[in-house]
Write a structure and sequence with these properties.
This protein is α+β, with helices and mostly antiparallel strands. The protein has a single domain, classed as paralog of FGE (formylglycine-generating enzyme) (Alpha-Beta Complex). Helix content is 12%, strand content 16%. It has a four-stranded mixed beta sheet with strand order 11-10-9-12. The chain has a three-stranded antiparallel beta sheet with strand order 1-4-13, with helices on one face. It has a two-stranded antiparallel sheet with strand order 2-3. Strand 7 and strand 8 form a beta hairpin. The longest helix has 11 residues. The protein is globular.
Length: 323
């Protein structure tokens, strides 16, 4: 994947051998209303998935546009928040990948002066703004000394695919498939570029949290935010989902392939769950670091991927449940 969207886990740990965090916590029995609290229903049926946008990156495999069918399902209206993840961590004693490894990737300009001693040597090729910071994790998003004290309603970040899967299991849910995520993110609009339509800022109003200005040196904060925004910032889409463009990247259940879906085989059209093999997992939605000059992946059809053990300061998730 493109390092601009989030580096993998190589330099300070072997991404090929990192083990998933142990999932030895007890999964509580939950009543259906408890599971569905905070979720919205997405009606089943066909929709046009993918895109042929001229700004797409060919290696991402956004196209071809194809009709895909999914069953009715539920999905979180927002990304999982710091407050919700804290409940999970306290109840289970779960430690995330970043906590176990002792470091995670932080957008360099966000590292506070008091944490600069924790910046590890090395840089990400092609994306020097990413810095590996010892002690960075969901509890300390910018490294030692930073906290989530005023960010309870912000999306939890520095979350690996394994972490997201563990939380979803504890909550009685699961990660959405890529097809479910896109169907939900579109909010009922057919082939629109964004969850609200074709224009990025209709009538001059900002609808998402992305980088405004000149990346990576100057963010005008025109949309009101520099880093993460509250999970319910901006207006929801037609299905009631918030922030499916920008804010944080969201893990999907599927393994990533640039071309598995390019055939008309039934398994790629009817409730597809992605290929059975592949090292990387799909991420959707873009983040607060996306900018049209280098990464326009905040479009609904855009996709990227990363290793399931990777963690960054702009990576989070939302959960799904069967209908």
């Amino acid at each position: 994947m493109s390092a601009c969207c989030g580096p993998g886990t190589p330099e300070h740990g072997d991404a090929g051998t990192l083990a998933a965090p142990p999932r030895n916590h007890v999964v509580p029995e939950r009543e259906r209303p408890d599971i569905l609290r905070g979720m919205v229903v997405v009606p089943g049926g066909p929709f046009l998935m993918g895109g042929d946008d001229p700004d797409a990156f060919p290696a991402d495999g956004e196209g071809p546009v194809r009709e895909v069918r999914v069953r009715t399902f539920h999905i979180d209206a927002t990304c999982v928040t710091n407050a919700r993840f804290a409940v999970f961590a306290k109840a289970t004693g779960y430690r995330t990948q970043a906590e176990l490894e002792g470091w995670s990737y932080v957008f360099g300009p966000f590292v506070p002066a008091a944490a600069r001693h924790a910046v590890l040597p090395g840089s990400v090729p092609g994306a020097p703004w990413w810095r590996a910071v010892a002690g960075a994790c969901w509890r300390a998003p910018e490294g030692p000394g930073s906290t989530i004290g005023q960010r309870g309603n912000h999306p939890v970040v520095h979350i690996s695919w394994h972490d997201a899967t563990a939380y979803a299991e504890w909550a009685g849910k699961r990660l959405p498939t890529e097809a479910e995520w896109e169907k939900a993110a579109r909010g009922g609009l057919a082939q629109a570029r964004f969850p609200w339509g074709e224009e990025l800022s209709p009538r001059g109003r900002h609808r998402c949290n992305i980088w405004r200005g000149t990346f990576p040196t100057h963010n005008t904060r025109e949309d009101g935010f520099l880093g993460t925004a509250p999970v319910n910032a901006f207006a929801p889409n037609g299905y009631g989902l918030y922030n499916t463009s920008g804010n944080v990247w969201e893990w999907c259940a599927d393994r990533f392939s640039p071309d598995w879906h390019a055939t008309a085989r039934p398994e790629t059209r009817d409730d597809p769950v992605g290929p059975s093999e592949g090292a990387n997992r799909v991420l959707r939605g873009g983040s607060y670091l996306c900018h049209h000059s280098y990464c326009n992946r905040y479009r609904v059809a855009a996709r990227t991927a990363n290793t399931p053990d990777s963690t960054t300061g702009h990576g989070g998730f939302r959960c799904a449940a069967d209908g």
